[in-house]
UniProtKB/TrEMBL annotation:
This is Triosephosphate isomerase. Belongs to the triosephosphate isomerase family. GO terms for molecular function: triose-phosphate isomerase activity. It comes from Salinispira pacifica. It is an enzyme of class 5 (isomerase). GO terms for biological process: gluconeogenesis; glyceraldehyde-3-phosphate biosynthetic process; glycerol catabolic process; glycolytic process.
Length: 250
């Protein structure tokens, strides 16, 4: 039985002071929630949010991380900096990083390995664009992003990885993949994982869905056999909405 993992990706929203007071509200409203939970503020809001969430049931995520340990990497944030600031989980390979900042599978894989070596949990995002889906390339894209993103990741480290399937056309658009469509892709990801890892490890993998998850559709999505959580953008920016998502009842 896999545990549900509901995570909020705040993207480039909320100043450090807004994020800190938002975290205080969430901490109160999510008290006693039974699922695994996380929020990912912007880098500079992390210390305040981590301080606020200390001792709570909400993990702290980062939205990205450098591929290097330290040194001459202007504008980057290192693993040690994130650790010191209180980060538990690092989101890597988000489609916005891939599309806007040109992050390749090989580059993302460097970060995945580095994050795992530093003891972080990783959420690896994969997903196809509308053109790729309509061009019949969905499986090829999702397979490549999964396999290349996890290159050199051992089976023993795999338990620290969550995959987030985020079809690019469903992000921030109000369009959600149907629960059946999403479940089919999640099952495909599990099949791809079983080609490299044991079937037990593939079966145990937590695979989140992301793309216009809202209080009104979360239950239907989570009811699917292969959907084990959500990576939520827009709806994670409102306390009531994220609370309703995070506390969904099966
Ligand atoms: O990109 C996402 C989470 O990482 C999804 O964003 P939305 O929930 O706003 O569609």
């Amino acid at each position: 039985m896999r545990n549900y993992f509901l995570a909020g990706n705040w993207k480039m929203n909320k100043t450090p002071s807004e994020a800190k007071s938002f975290a205080a509200e969430l901490k109160a409203s999510l008290k006693g929630a039974s699922h695994k939970l996380m929020v990912a503020p912007s880098f500079i809001a992390i210390p305040g949010v981590a301080e606020e969430l200390k001792g709570s049931n909400i993990l702290v995520g980062a939205q990205n991380m450098s591929n290097a340990e330290s040194g001459a990497h202007t504008g980057e944030v290192s693993p040690e900096m994130l650790k010191d600031a209180g980060v538990d989980v690092v989101i890597l390979g988000h489609s916005e990083r891939r599309a806007i900042y040109g992050e390749s599978d090989a580059f993302i894989n460097e970060k995945v390995q580095l994050a795992l070596n530093h003891g972080f949990e990783v959420i690896l995002c994969v997903g196809e664009t509308l053109d790729e889906r309509e061009g019949g390339k969905l499986e090829e894209i999702v397979r490549t992003q999964t396999v290349e993103g996890l290159k050199n990741v051992s089976e023993s480290s795999l338990s620290k990885v969550t995959i987030a399937y985020e079809p690019v056309w469903a992000i921030g658009t109000g369009k959600t993949a149907t629960p059946q469509d999403a479940d089919d892709v999640h099952a495909f990801i599990r099949k791809v994982l079983a080609e490299t890892y044991s079937s037990d490890a593939a079966e145990a993998m937590v695979i989140q869905y992301g793309g216009s998850v809202k209080p009104g559709n979360v239950k239907e999505l989570m009811a699917k056999e292969n959907i084990d959580g959500a990576l939520v953008g827009g709806a994670s920016l409102k306390v009531e909405d994220f609370t309703a998502i995070a506390k969904f009842d099966t």
